[in-house]
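Model: Ready when you are.
Researcher: Fold this.
Model:
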Amino acid sequence: MERYAEPTRQEFEGWEEFYSKPADEKLDSFIQDGRIYDVIYAQQFDREFLDYLCNLAENIRHLAKTKVGQIKLRHLLPHKRAMLYFVQPSTRTFLSFQNACYVLGLSVSEIRGITTSSEVKGESQEDTIRTFASYVDLIIARHPEAGFAEKTAWVLNQTVRPVPVLNGGSGPDQHPTQALLDIYTLEREFRDMGGLDGKTIAMVGDLKRGRTVRSLSYLMKNYEDVTLYYAAPQVFRMKDDIKGFLEKHGISYHETEDFQSIMPLVDAIYMTRIQNEYSEDPSSAAETFPEFHFKKEHLARIQPHCAILHPLPRRYEIEVSVDKDPRAAYWRQERCGMWIRAALIAYIFRVDHEITDEFS
């Protein structure tokens, strides 16, 4: 591994300049020896990588079905340690990453709140980050502050002991591993229909602040003839940066406030909740936007193969009665998260070929 000179405080202060650059200009900063080293943005993933990782996840899934396979998986990384720094509320992402680590034999440390960190004593984020890297081989971060995971990777890549950083959700900007599991889920749902190419997908709800739909939208550039429908209240429409990205890459998209009208047109419906935790006006939490809910009666309007997804947690935007329909894919989607994150960790630590060799 390449060694770096110890950074000075002045070099750390260069973070703001780095952060201000467009993501496309920073992708090489998170690559090592020609492979992805830190996972910060969905833009890092190309079609070859996505196809490979989905296949790797399938291989891990098959191995884990037997006792012998589970033992092989657990012996891949017992010498590695991971830190789950989750200081924003999380159930699925935390447990998914934690169990992905266990599948591969990593030991796991965790911090679930800033109040248990020395940041509460006034320690800088840079020093907190470097403290974690002193003890572990991988940092998985979920933080309410936009750019935190990127800053963590940037800081560590200038030190004598860089360790990989995986973004488990950073403010309202991106959630790249959620996008990975969404792609993996969609590919599995459409495996008898040619995969994701040529499909039409509706994204519904809080698109303005939904980092899951933002990250998934970025990945659409890797698939052929995909069409997106953005169904959202006017106040929560998708931001212009994502729409500009789609236009740049020639990806067809449409915006509408009439959710029901597009139900029969799409191959997948990606529901999201209204993210009141980002609301500046507490009174807005009372608004539920029922015209953007999916109800049992809507099952008759969608295509027989249409997959219904949701990153969870849900509140009222999908009726519980919908769960029994075979097109309700969100519980399968949740489980896919553990397998694709295990695949990502195996790839990061370069033990992926030990898995694929089992199937060659």
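Researcher: Now this one.
Model:
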Amino acid sequence: MHKSEGLKALMLDVIKLHEEEYGSSPVAIGVAPGTINLLGEHTDYNEGYVLQFAIPKYVWVSISTRADGSFRFYAANTNERKKSPKGPFKYRREDRWANYSKGVISGFSGRGLEVPGLDVTIYSEIPQDIGLGSSDALCVAATLAIQKLLNVSLTDADIISIANGAEKDYMGLPIEVTDVMTSLKSRDGKAIYIDLRSMEYSYIPLRLEDAILVGTNSHVPPVEVGEYVQELIDDCYTGVGYLNTRHPGRTLRDFSEADVKASLEIMPEAARRLCLHVIEENSRVVEGKKLLEKKNYPLFGKLMSQSHESLRDNYEVSCPEIDWLVKRAIETDGVYGSRITGPGFGGCTVTLMKKNALLEYTEKMLEYERIFGFSAEVFQLTPVGGAFEYFTHQ
């Protein structure tokens, strides 16, 4: 169990919420951190590379068994409730947030591990819909809680498959394993570098000394991006089709900038820019890993800013509010680099800066609110360890 006093105190709060809602104590609890992308945006569904870490904001899922075999779901943050009869479950749009837990339960059933009726309490510290992996963390936490309840030993690969499958298979969302894997396998003080083709990964120390990583929630109203992301995925494979006229490849991972330039006469401009972003972003991740290992933060920051420019101009997933935040960050003395993080269209930025630049950057948020009418939230980001679970009692 994590030793943080803050986490212990919050665990007691979650137990109390569960007891007040259901009249009994939870038997098992899963806890999973949110995640943030340093580099590697929209590379995951192209079998590319990502560089991420887990953040000290968590989702808690507490569970206890029910004698009647039915399922009750309680979202403590919003005081909402959902219920379902005995499985097998079917996805229901009206179940909204409860579908993530239902998808996880279905994942266990699909492996021949029957889950008894449950009372489920969900509590989240992670802001939703801003690219911090809130739903992925929920699925990881639910998977670990049920694993503990059933007293089974799943491999990490099984946990990742069940948690990701809840979103990708059960809910039909265009979600890769990236955030689930980072939420589960992260380590304190380190970033994780993942190769999405081989699924190999490694850790890079992220002890920044006189520098800090800062997240900024733009508070731009969230939009449903699932359909648009699916269009981007389809467009990437259309781009592969053009590039395959030169030489064979499975995904954009298999091509270079030179391949794109050699296909200019047959490839539409929009497809060209899409392909260039993914190919160049993969190169930025590979180079960024080396720079972090050398603690070369000025050059790493430049890669972050280049990534944002490409996401804005080539992939077209930014928005005026985010562009303003990134521009003002880069104009601040002591800032190394800044970029949008997550799928896009609002959400959050991540910025690498010297510690003494934070005050000046934060003061600029007053101007942001005057211009756009949204209050930006600035918070420091510290890499933490991955998800965990435990019995509260037996």
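Researcher: Key takeaway?
Model: The chain has a mean pLDDT of 94.
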